[in-house]
Amino acid sequence: DTWFQLQPVSADSEVQGKVHLELRLSEVITDSGVVNHKLATRVLECQGLPIVNGQCDPYAAVSLLGPSRSEAKKTKVKRKTNNPQFEETFYFEVTRPLSYTKRQFDVEEEDVDKLALRVDLWNASNLKFGDEFLGGVRVPLRVLGQAGVHDAWYFLLPRENGGKSVKVEDLGSLRLNIVYTEDHVFPSEHYTPLRDLLLQSANVEPVSASTAHILGEVCREKQEAAIPLVRLFLHYGKIVPFISAIAHAEINRTQNPNTIFRGNSLTSKCIDETMKLAGMHYLQVTLKPIIDEICTEHKSCEIDPVKLKESENLETNRENLRQYVDRIFNVITTSGVRCPTVMCDIFFSLRESAATRFQVDQDVRYTAVSSFIFLRFFAPAILSPNLFHLRPHHPDPATSRTLTLISKTIQTLGSLAKSKSANFKESYMAAFYDYFNEQKYADAVKNFLDLISTSGKWDQKSIETPIMLKEGFMIKRAQGRNRFGIKNFKKRWFRLTNHEFTYHKTKGEGALCSIPIENILAVERLEEESFKMKNMFQVIQPERALYIQANNCVEARDWIDILTKVSQCNRKRLSTYHPSAYLNGHWLCCKLSADTAPGCTPCTGGLPANIQLDVDGDRETERIYSLFGTYMTKLIKMQEACGSKSVYDGPEQEEYSTFVIDDPQETYKTLKQIISAVQTLEQQHTKYKRDKFKKTKIGSQEHPIGDKSFQCYIRQQSENTTYSI
Predict the structure, then answer these.
(1) Which residue ranges does the record assign to the C2 domain (predicted)?
(2) Per-residue pLDDT, 165
(3) Local structure of residue 160 (DSSP, 8 states)
(4) Cα 485 off chain centre by
């Protein structure tokens, strides 16, 4: 984290690319018998040259520099390429003093310091301003050594004194926080011991003795551990059991339900990171349209009387803000069907653990979930949309202020706090919140939280209380195994919970038919041609389809979305379906006569149920190894703490108090396995680096010579030289 002085920039100072050169010193005897020495300079090729104004027509200019020498020769122009192949050779005379009688071809020491080769790359421009400088390199002839031959790649460098003379202090400074990470990733089998330890973390009892939890304990910042852990567990499909285990342990350590997940624990950081990865598309479809509108409309929404401009009206601003809050609140609370499955399963686990731990508090099942989905997901995305890829840039100050006020209100609405006015330090915010002090807002939040904390796993249904998700009157076509003949259409009261889909003669009566959610194989629209009726959809079961007509197209879409959401984890979901009904002995869509014929159209899938992450599991394991290596001293100290706890029952020593150790023996056992796995990987890295250093050739295409590496090259050349007397 450092302040950097800003430097002047010119076209001559911004360069990129590399050039391949070959230099050879040869002896030539002239007709008069005089021995001269010529330098043959071969410009072979360049790679990665910059494209200037949409074109790159490069050529090279080669000069021999010395006290009295300055010859310049040019290659042919290579059109429309930034990776030109030149393959041209130029000759320069290097005349020796008359006293020179040595048979070797190496240049005498007094001449070496005076001679250098300069190669500049230019873009041949048709503009009147002349050709553009692309970069250059200066090669002192002392690189020829005894052999008289030099073949190497060079990074192109800025032209010397290319920029204008500007006082540095006039340009100011810029503070940068730079983190550089370099991971050398081995083949997968090298990581098996450490990876297995990590992936078993959810099954370790207690979870505080697991490898993943220990990583969170020794890292300076929980975020350091959370990022690679979440990506690794997501990659291997183990994120839900892991987060469930560490969340359950944290909830059991919490004494007051009002402080649940308040700290920056490993649990909260892992859930944050999971939402950021799994929920990015969810944010895009939910918030982006309304955020874009707010950023382009520039409506005034300032409600602080102190900050109000003379031309603005307080009531108008309040109404503008209220409308924005209402719209964002509605898009959030009606978006439950789009919430990714992995997030829903995590929220289900949080809700169940919190409700079991604090049975007296009826709201804790909601606050445990809202503390993440509202406080750590939606509210920050509204506040800083650029950080969540909802906007390309940070909003202007006025829009940013509007988003801040919206974010505060949404956060409070989602918190379900008992005393709303107490949540605001500012009196104007408390007054504004009176607009939303109605039961319908709390009910909408609870319904939304109920839906997104519904588990998609059927082994959880036995312990989960049924949650009513949607109900209302619709028209259904009478079911029956016999599909032939005319069937009646009847109005029925439909009711959907996270356990079953039922219909009743009227509201409040017993169910005439119940379809378990696990029996729903697909939910799709039904073509109007089937029954000459609009707004129809079908709920496909193993043996038959239930045809339903909604009251309007919006209702039909809502029912399809929510039914798809609750059934999207069913193991036997169909991949194809029939978009039309089976009537008069055949399917109207594909004309097949068998009523059991497989579908003729791919299922729409309804919603993006989950995410496909481009994660390299080995790289994430390598990252975790690097973290363990960085904090090895803390691992050893944690071992000491386990030993201390095992033999001493008195007050905990202060130096060990930062570690969470529930079972010293189990934790010590895991620590021993971690240290062993890390040390094995460390030995492999040491061997790799040693072998790589031996094979590294400075001046090769992979390691071109640059401004800083020239001395390394000279040192490497001298180490490889054998002298003989």
Answers:
(1) 15-154
(2) 55
(3) T
(4) 56
